[in-house]
Amino acid sequence: IPALQPNNSAPTKQTVLSWQAAIDAARQAKAAQGMSTTQAQPVGSLSQRKRQQYAKSKKQGNTSNSRPARALFCLSLNNPLRRACISIVEWKPFDIFILLAIFANCVALAVYIPFPEDDSNSTNHDLEKVEYAFLIIFTIETFLKIVAYGLLLHPNAYVRNGWNLLDFVIVIVGLFSVILEQLTKEAEGGSHSGGKPGGFDVKALRAFRVLRPLRLVSGVPSLQVVLNSIIKAMVPLLHIALLVLFVIIIYAIIGLELFIGKMHKSCYFEDSAEDEPAPCAFSGSGRQCPQNGTECKGGWPGPNGGITNFDNFGYAMLTVFQCITMEGWTDVLYWVSGVFCVFENISSKKRVLGLFCNSKSLW
């Protein structure tokens, strides 16, 4: 019977097409599900992940590029000493330790109390010993970085970076001051020359210690961004400074024309020959000496020990700059109006200004 025989014939074309359509539908459904999952994921996380991957690859590229093939002409990348130095300087706890050392050094500089001559106290003696420890730490750091990245010839060498160059100069000055200090002690023990070998005061080099807090900039990249922005902003401000300088020059020239040599007269007492610390005028407009045994004479150095005057261009610019800063400009106003008032002689309509100038003779 044909109906009871097993169906061993090949699948028909219609069956194959049905299977293929089902497989395609399953694939499309899976692809649509994947797209919906991707769209459901936040865009910010994707962009953040891409930025992190880019920063990581960039950091790895910069790290590899910052290592020259040779350092100090003889140390290759396979050298055990150099490999150890690279591992140390690129170790994050090492950077944290250096930053803590810089902070501690700043605290030590703030606690230190300078005394005149060779006087000191126990606290300063202890801080001097601590300074040696800080100098040793910073010297070791400089040595490790020079061995790791080279000194000068490579484009990414240690001193090619401006902040690293500042660190290098601070360390060199510190070592130089220590050497001179030891020579000073030997000279004092031998000849008692006053602690100044060759006439040079070693303590003058201690002023460079104030630069040590700037080493924080090399360890904190955000501070580098801030300082670089400030430096870039100084260039446009230079044009404003030139404008201010131009204004100071103009008014300094006007002061030279009007008040040159006129601020060296003062009221002297006839009995004691003592002077009053204020300029005066012989006759005409200006401050007149009171009728109490005083006489207006020349020979007075001038206000502020002879610094505030219009006798030359330098002093004139300094006086105008003092007025611009609004620091003590009223004193300059009284001194100049006590010498000479040009407004009274310009026009008879300026009697108010003339009254203002002549009223200065009352103080």
From TrEMBL:
What the entry lists under Gene3D superfamilies is as follows: 1.10.287.70, Voltage-gated potassium channels. Chain C (1.20.120.350)
**A Pfam entry, by short name:** Ion_trans
Residue spans with biased composition (Polar residues)? 34-47
Q: What's the protein called, per UniProt?
A: Ion transport domain-containing protein
Q: Which domain of life is it from?
A: Eukaryota
What is the reaction catalyzed?
A: Ca(2+)(in) = Ca(2+)(out)
Which lineage?
Answer: Eukaryota, Metazoa, Chordata, Craniata, Vertebrata
All residue ranges annotated as the Ion transport domain in the record: 92-337
Sorted alphabetically, which InterPro entries does this protein's record hold?
A: Ion_trans_dom (IPR005821), LVDCC_a1dsu (IPR005452), VDCC_alpha-1_subunit (IPR050599), VDCC_L_a1su (IPR005446), Volt_channel_dom_sf (IPR027359)
Classify the protein's membrane topology as the record does.
Multi-pass membrane protein
What are the recorded Gene Ontology BP terms?
calcium ion import across plasma membrane
Q: Does the keyword Transferase apply?
A: no
Q: Which GO terms describe its molecular function?
A: high voltage-gated calcium channel activity
